[in-house]
Amino acid sequence: MAGEHIKVIYFDGRGRAESIRMTLVAAGVDYEDERISFQDWPKIKPTIPGGRLPAVKVTDNHGHVKWMLESLAIARYMAKKHHMMGETDEEYYSVEKLIGQAEDVEHEYHKTLMKPQEEKEKITKEILNGKVPVLFNMICESLKGSTGKLAVGDKVTLADLVLIAVIDHVTDLDKGFLTGKYPEIHKHRENLLASSPRLAKYLSNRPATPF
């Protein structure tokens, strides 16, 4: 995407856009991060194809615009373009497997969104004592099977980034949930940040948001 202007459009949060942002950061690709307030969204919505976020607007050197929609499709596209989907068919499968496992956790997290506080606390307790530990155990088994220090081998892949995003969401629900548990997940984050100084800097400097 050399010479193109990339704009990632989303609300002022990590949410479904964070895997896209982190993929671009890890790949060393410059992009514009446009964050829209909920207050401004109704007037901006008609200008976005499909009226949904996140969206990515790519403008080439001739001013031609291409819109990209669907968060994981965008992240996969960017990751594939920058060689972050594994180097062999086996690695590709491992990347996709971990993405699927992380998305299963994300599905549980989404049950807590836009709920009254009392109901959110009830749902949070249910999922953190129910499916989420089972899913994290599956993720840990996948990490144990890696041939390197990262999720799949020794090179940063989309699996690493999706995993970081979903772990942050679970930590939002309960900051102590991972404490003393899942050593593979803690080690993975440590190895990932050591492997990608750009990503480490981004995570350290990104704005604190509620989601």
TrEMBL record:
Domain GST C-terminal: 88-211
Gene Ontology MF term list: glutathione transferase activity
Gene3D superfamilies: 1.20.1050.10, Glutaredoxin
Pfam families: GST_C (PF00043), GST_N (PF02798)
CDD domains attached to this UniProt entry: GST_C_Sigma_like (cd03192), GST_N_Sigma_like (cd03039)
PROSITE patterns noted in UniProt: GST_CTER, GST_NTER
InterPro entries, sorted: Glutathione-S-Trfase_C-like (IPR010987), Glutathione-S-Trfase_C_sf (IPR036282), Glutathione_S-Trfase (IPR040079), Glutathione_S-Trfase_N (IPR004045), GST_C (IPR004046), GST_superfamily (IPR050213), Thioredoxin-like_sf (IPR036249)
Domain GST N-terminal: 4-86
GO terms for biological process, alphabetical: glutathione metabolic process
Subunit note: Homodimer.
PANTHER family: GLUTATHIONE S-TRANSFERASE
Similarity section: Belongs to the GST superfamily. Mu family.
Role according to the record: Conjugation of reduced glutathione to a wide number of exogenous and endogenous hydrophobic electrophiles.
Name this polypeptide is given: Glutathione transferase
